[in-house]
Amino acid sequence: MDDLSLYHPSCPTDGVLLREVGAGWECPECGRFESAMSGPLPPEFDGPGIHGG
């Protein structure tokens, strides 16, 4: 994995880096669209607050 793949997803069909469009990413080769909301949500934060609370 390279640094670019941390920020831009690649197409699961052909491995090409997806380009940002509207509300997600699109493969320039096959046209596959990945919604920005289709990924898993991060877990809810339950650690200590910034100000110790």
Mean of pLDDT: 81
* Protein structure class: mainly beta
> How do the SSEs run, as a string of H and E?
EEE
The rounded distance between the terminal residues' Cα atoms is 38 Å
Shape assignment: elongated
Estimated share of beta-strand residues: 15-25%
Topology, number of strands = 3
Main β-sheet description: 3 strands, antiparallel
Lateral arrangement of strands in the main beta sheet: 1-2-3
Number of helices: 0
Descriptive account of the structure:
By secondary structure, this protein is an all-beta fold. The protein has a domain at 3-35. Helix content is 0%, strand content 17%. It has no helices and three strands. A three-stranded antiparallel sheet has the order 1-2-3, with no helix packed on it. The radius of gyration is 16 Å and the shape is elongated.
What is the fold's blueprint, element by element?
Blueprint: E1 19-21, E2 24-26, E3 33-35
Antiparallel strand pairs: 1-2, 2-3
Short description:
0% of the residues lie in helices and 17% in strands.
Keyphrases for this structure?
0% helix; 53 residues; mainly beta
